[in-house]
Amino acid sequence: MWITRVLSSIIFLAYTVVSIPLGFDVGGRACGLAFSLSLASFYFFYSVLRLLTPSRSRYRWLLVKTIATTQWIILPSLLIWSLNRFSVEPTDSRGWVERTFSGKRAANTSLSQWILGPDGLAESVTVGVWDKFLTWSTPVFQLSEGFCSLLVIQAAGQVTRWLVNRSGKSDSWMIGLLVMSASIISSSVYFLWRVTQFPQISNVDATLIGMAITCAVFLCAWGIGSGKGNPVESSLLFAYIVLCIYQIFTDYQPSNPIEPPPPSEAADFPPFPPIIMASYTTLLQALSTLPSAIHATFNFIIAALSTITPSVIISLAYRLFVLYASTRIIPAVRESGARALSQEPSLEDTDGANQILGVLSWFSPSILIAVYTSLLMQHFATTSNGDNGDWWVSQGGDVGNNLWRWINVAGTMALYALELNLSKEDLDSGVTGHWKSD
Fold first, then answer.
1. Mean pLDDT on 123-152
2. Who contacts 282 (Cβ-Cβ below 8 Å, separation ≥6)?
3. What mean pLDDT is reported for the chain?
4. Burial tier of 109 (Cβ tally within 10 Å: 0-12, 13-18, 19+)
């Protein structure tokens, strides 16, 4: 049933979002990398099994159902194994090659211990290669986000253009879309104003922000004035540029922490009627009688959620949205029109691009884990410049920079400018070109 699949996807997403940063926070950098690698490997081989085995095979059905049912036992076991095996971090910041083939390996008593023991060859190669893969794939994920965001923005512009020009209530749609565009721009200007209040912005940063906003405003005016764009498309582009700038200079935390107000004196009368206060007291007493295991579970969930920063969650949610939307938009633009928006990518398509999207959809859990781990590593690397980030550098992590985020901003605007320059004022193109209108 689709309800079961939706619940399973929600549980998987929630577990992934909570458990991977918990592995980094409790066990350290090597533990978080090993746990994310084990998760990605598990779902990679699970996807390969589903992809290569015949769909009508009974053995395939039994094996897939068994793995799908027992995965809720396997996933916590992988976390416990990672915490037990990789919780002790190396004392130096050398790479996996230096640690594996250093002179200290002479202390190993056997070849199996050198290969399979703690900090052995197998452990160092697998975790080290996964670390390098995530580090070098960060620019790919960043630039893919900008490209997919531009696809979503242009698709939204085409749909709104069709609603205004071809629907029966064009005036109502025009007023509503203008109000929505104005709201998006106002919200973006507010967050841009918040960026200017951050104390860590230097003169170079201010210059880059001014150049980016100037180019974005010019592109928005060009698109609206030439008729090749519309207010919705321009407002979304401006909002995305502001979002990228906001992600560069903040962790979605207040710049100056607000001190809590001093406790006020107790009032002479209760804040609520006696019947409500009595019910509240009764509820607290009932909760206090619960088993200690429930209290420990609740405290564990709170501690796990406290390790997740809002910046990573917002970046993950936005990146997943644009990547998923692009898998629907690309087939619609190429051949199928609006009908492809409601169809999943499949390997049975004759088009090569649709087949690639179908393969990516099969391995979407592993891609999700890699994207999320890359965002966490980027966050830890960015915050390693402060006092609380020394542990990341001491464990072999790199000090982060925002070069690829600025390249993404520049590349997105350059690609949009190229699109405006080459496109024509055609209302029957792209996604809406296959729609019928009475």
1. 88
2. none
3. 76
4. exposed
pLDDT for 274:
63
35-65 pLDDT, tens per residue? Answer: 999 999 999 999 888 888 887 788 888 888 8
CA–CA dist 382, 251 (Å, integer): 9
Considering only CA atoms, which of 145, 375, 378, 139 is closest in space to residue 240? 145
C-alpha–C-alpha distance, residues 289 and 277, integer Å: 19
The full length of the chain comes to 438
For 386-426, give the DSSP string.
Answer: SGGGHHHHHTTPPPP--HHHHHHHHHHHHHHHHHHHH----
Report pLDDT for 176: 92
In whole angstroms, give the CA distance from residue 396 to residue 135: 12
What's the burial of 235, exposed, middle or buried (CB within 10 Å: 0-12/13-18/19+)?
A: buried
Residue 377 structure tokens: 């590593």
pLDDT at 438: 45
Measured CA to CA, the distance from residue 420 to residue 399 in angstroms comes to 38
CB atoms within 10 A of CB 257: 7
